[in-house]
Specification:
elongated; 67% helix; 123 residues; 4 helices
Length: 123
C-alpha cells in the first residue's frame, strides 16, 4: 500500500491569502467603476446628472477600507510565518484575517451595494 504524502501546512493559509487578495482587488475594481460612471453623459437618458463629487467620498471610504484590510492581511500573514503557526502561541495557524476584518469587509460591501442601488433608483 502506498502512503499518502504529508499535508503541506502552508498550503491552506496561502490559498486563503490569495482569496483575500482577489476579493480586495474585485472590491477596488468595483469602486473604481462606480466612481467612473458619472463621467459618462447621463443627462441625455435620464434628464438628471449625478455629480462625480457625490460618488467620490463613498469610493474613497471603500478604497480606504480595502487598503486597511490588505495591510492587515499581509502583516498577519508575515507575523504567522506565512500562516504556519499562530503569532502569539506558536500553535497551529489561526485564520489569516481577524474576525473584525470579515465584518469590516462585509459591512463595506453591503454599504456600497445599498449606495449603488439608491443612486441607480434616484439617478
Amino acid at each position: 500500500m502506498s502512503r499518502r504524502p504529508g499535508r503541506d501546512p502552508g498550503l491552506q493559509p496561502e490559498r486563503t491569502l490569495l482569496s483575500w487578495q482577489r476579493t480586495l482587488i474585485v472590491v477596488i475594481a468595483t469602486v473604481l467603476l462606480y466612481v467612473r460612471d458619472p463621467f459618462h453623459d447621463v443627462t441625455a437618458a435620464t434628464g438628471r446628472a449625478v455629480e462625480a463629487l457625490h460618488r467620490l467620498p463613498i469610493g474613497l471610504v471603500v478604497l480606504a477600507v480595502a487598503g486597511v484590510l490588505m495591510v492587515h492581511v499581509r502583516r498577519r500573514w508575515r507575523a504567522t510565518d506565512h500562516g504556519c503557526h499562530d503569532d502569539a502561541t506558536g500553535t497551529p495557524p489561526a485564520p489569516v484575517a481577524r474576525p473584525w476584518a470579515l465584518f469590516l469587509l462585509s459591512g463595506s460591501v453591503a454599504a456600497l451595494g445599498v449606495v449603488v442601488a439608491v443612486t441607480a433608483v434616484l439617478g
